[in-house]
Amino acid sequence: MVKNLWRKTVNIGGTLIAGAADQPLKGAFTPPGDKSMSHRAVMLASLANGITEIEGFLPGEDNIATAKMFEAMGVTIEWLSDDQTKLRIHGVGLYGLQEPSQVLDAGNSGTCARLMTGVLAGQNFHTVLVGDASLHKRPMRRVAEPVRRMGAHVDGAKEGELLPLAIRGGNLKAMAFQSEVASAQVKSCVMFAALYAEGDTTVREPKPTRDHTERMFPLFGQPVSIDNSGLITVQPSGTLTAPAGVLHIPADPSSATFFAVATAIIPGSEVLLQQVGLNPRRDGWRRILTAMGGDISLLQEKKIGDEPVSDIFIRGGGVHGINVDPNDVPDAIDEFPVLFVAAALAEGSFILSQAEELRVKESDRITTMVKALQACGASIEEKPDGVIIQGQKRLKGGVTVDAHGDHRIAMAMAVAAQCADAPITIINAAAIATSFPSFVATAQQLGMNVAWKDEA
Ligand code: S3P
């Protein structure tokens, strides 16, 4: 019987072996391009009139999935460098996409699936959005419902709760949207749909989330206004225009954090992370790690496009536990797996609450990290909306842990192994390629002890 043709399991497999670092970490490096911004850049460039050149693009599987979707709808993308960090996109205009002949596959990427739901809601044709086995378990009603209210026809598995989604868009009307979850993906989905709506769409979020969409729309000639209360208004201008110069994407703070934590917990380490995005809505990791006593300084702050960036210098000297301010949660939402590692090796206790969104990421990041760290000998207690961790000097290690196809769990546990008495085997780690294909090479350069197991 042929079934589930759309369900790939690419994120399963791949084993990392990681052990204690032989020496302090040293070096300087520029993390790969920002994942969130790379998605948005491809989307806006494809929907603009004119040609956009992008530099600093993240060639991770997630972003390639977004690029492939636009290719499937008639957009020409030229790759200008072998490492796929430079590209030229021949935009077709807001109304120039063509109905694809195949399903559109978001792979492992929630951002791709959810933001594309907004784009596809604006198209006067039929599409089917699918993903891998992990993405097929993640909630989609949060985006299906608002675009339905704007007039798109969206059906999906489990009454629209899950992928695959079938979308027939067009003839959208504006709406005043009050989001129930603090989610930049939900906000951005509605903002993309708003480009196609008749009238002005407003979005209000329960807590501020990453604002790359708000910052990037104006670079393509689409104004966004935000009042003092945080209410976002998109008054659709009817056309997007390719920016005059090259669109540069800063280095991803989420990728930088793995090395920031590794440096902080290995005494004597000194690492310079270059050109890292410092957007306040992404900078929660730095506020949290600094509050934990991390020795972190900013050098050379500047702007790339409309985004603040800086070189960040970290010195290893140990950290202590804190009670995380719930207001910082959305600003560090992707960094908690590795911040849990810092907490497990900190002095005193670390308490995180109001972070239930962690349960609907690429894996349930509360349960997955609790199981993995407990197996390594850490003292970590699972709460419905967070964790309580009692720090200790070293981890025991000597175990196999399962990353469950979640890139950030795999990388976080590789960092944990640097302070373990015996090596840790991390299975189902291949998904690292979704966001940070060069992670292992970079980690080795800086002195971390981690390698792919040869499974040939
Ligand atoms: C993202 C938003 C966040 C984040 C994800 C990227 C984005 O998800 O976890 O990795 O680019 O908008 P939520 O919006 O679901 O919190």
List the helices and strands and how they pair.
Elements: E1 16-19, E2 26-29, H1 35-47, E3 49-55, H2 61-72, E4 76-79, E5 86-92, E6 104-105, H3 110-121, E7 126-130, H4 141-149, E8 153-156, H5 157-160, E9 162-168, E10 176-178, H6 184-194, E11 201-204, H7 212-216, E12 225-226, E13 232-234, E14 247-248, H8 253-265, E15 270-277, H9 284-291, E16 295-304, E17 307-315, H10 336-344, E18 349-352, H11 365-375, E19 379-383, E20 386-390, E21 395-397, E22 400-402, H12 407-417, E23 420-422, E24 424-427, H13 432-435, H14 439-446, E25 449-452
Parallel strand pairs: 2-15, 3-14, 6-7, 10-11, 21-23, 22-24
Antiparallel strand pairs: 1-24, 1-25, 3-5, 4-5, 7-9, 8-9, 11-13, 12-13, 15-17, 16-17, 18-20, 19-20
Helix pairs in contact: 1-2, 1-3, 2-3, 3-4, 3-6, 4-6, 8-10, 8-12, 10-11, 10-12
The structure holds shikimate-3-phosphate.
Shikimate-3-phosphate binds at residues 36, 111, 183-185, 188, 210, 333-334, 357.
